């Protein structure tokens, strides 16, 4: 049985205090620098962990439905059985979940199918909170929501679900694997110190491309390498995905262009070829001139997936080296 939320919050506060008092803080010299708190193992903020855990019952529920593919994968990695998972055509569920009942899409689950499974808890992505809560409003089914947008979100979800389902040991093993992949990406930082590679991340199809910021999953991986994602630094991105402003992109002159499409690598290649043909200005980019336009595998970079992170880290390291 895990600690109640109130106890966990106290533990988080003690960890925060320990991190602060462990720092040698000199007398006030006019500096406004504030020392950062020491995170828990796995790089997870204790306050964020305590907040996430307040959604879960003290006793782990025995019957769980996941309305999120990434969260279903995390539960699978932790050895937590799931009674239902979302239907999907663009994301890959673990093979061992192939025969688990489907509950409809992540953003619009079928409430009747969920009720038939009689779950003690439905776990969904934070991005689907409004629709899932509305669907479950009249059923009395408890729900919990976790972010899955970035790698940092996934690490917090692993830690949270590990604590909520008494799977701390399994969670630590998963976080160790993620840490090894992170280290491979961070190893690129010294090579780009002082002059980071300017990267442009695109997602979409012909005539409807968007740029991806560090708030996207692919962007969060690129950020680990020390590359300069121009969506954040020069294009004024206001969210994970923002419409392309070609004039600003031209001015930014990216060194590398990474392209993603839910239709797969062939669809992404066709889309970017059509875009370059329709707008010749793209051809002046350093990335295009130097042959550094790369199509990413959607299964590795389009959504958070722990199983393929090592392969994604290898691929991205090759593109940004």
UniProtKB/TrEMBL annotation:
Query: Where in the sequence is the signal peptide annotated?
Result: 1-27
Q: From what superkingdom does this record's organism come?
A: Bacteria
Q: Which UniProt keywords apply?
A: Signal
- Fe/B12 periplasmic-binding domain span: 63-321
Keyword flag Cell membrane: no
Q: Which InterPro entries match?
A: ABC_Transporter_SBP, ABC_transptr_periplasmic_BD, Vit_B12_bind_prot
GO BP terms in the entry:
cellular response to iron ion
Q: Name one Pfam family in it.
A: Peripla_BP_2
The entry's family comment says:
Belongs to the bacterial solute-binding protein 8 family.
What the entry lists under PANTHER family is as follows: HIGH-AFFINITY HEME UPTAKE SYSTEM PROTEIN ISDE, VITAMIN B12-BINDING PROTEIN
Quote the protein name from its UniProt record: Fe/B12 periplasmic-binding domain-containing protein
